[in-house]
Design goal:
This protein is an alpha/beta fold and 146 residues long. Helices cover 51% and strands 16% of the residues. Strand 4, helix 5 (121-126) and strand 5 form a beta-alpha-beta unit. Helix 2 crosses helix 3 (56-77).
């Protein structure tokens, strides 16, 4: 059995690569999907497909529609969602994706540091599991295969 895992969270560093590497080291049968991690591609996709927009609002709106469609398709095909809340970047996309996963009744693991316990308390309460590290999230997934 192989599980498909949607990795929700910021796209400004290589945390997904670390998850994939650690999963491979643990020999976990996992396939990973994610939002578009090329920031420029994500921002420009609306204009790339629909043509130049009349202003930044319209550019962002066009890109958001296409990015949201991509996220919905990949998340619905996933077996599990891991949503990483880091300390460095704004986390609105992560919160939106975690909420969507929970609404879709996808098994959801939230990774968040200690200092985000209070601001994420309601979301953590709705997730299946909340952990503090990538290693803990992978241990949760490894337990499925025991």
């Amino acid at each position: 059995m192989e599980l498909t895992v949607y990795l929700a969270g910021q796209i400004h560093d290589d945390w997904r690569g670390q998850v994939e590497k650690k999963a491979k080291e643990k020999n976990l049968p996992l396939k990973f999907v994610a939002p578009q991690t090329n920031h420029d591609r994500s921002d420009d996709i609306g204009e790339d497909i629909l043509g130049e927009q009349p202003g930044n609002y319209y550019k962002d709106d066009a890109a958001s529609s296409i990015n949201n469609l991509r996220t919905q398709v990949l998340m619905e095909k996933s077996d599990v969602v891991i949503a990483l809340f880091g300390e460095k970047y704004k986390q609105w996309n992560t919160a939106m994706d975690a909420s969507a996963a929970i609404t879709l009744n996808k098994p959801t693991i939230i990774i968040r540091p200690n200092d985000l316990i209070h601001p994420l308390k309601e979301l953590s309460n709705k997730a299946n599991v909340t952990v503090e590290t990538v290693d803990q999230a992978l241990d949760v997934l490894a337990y499925i295969f025991e």
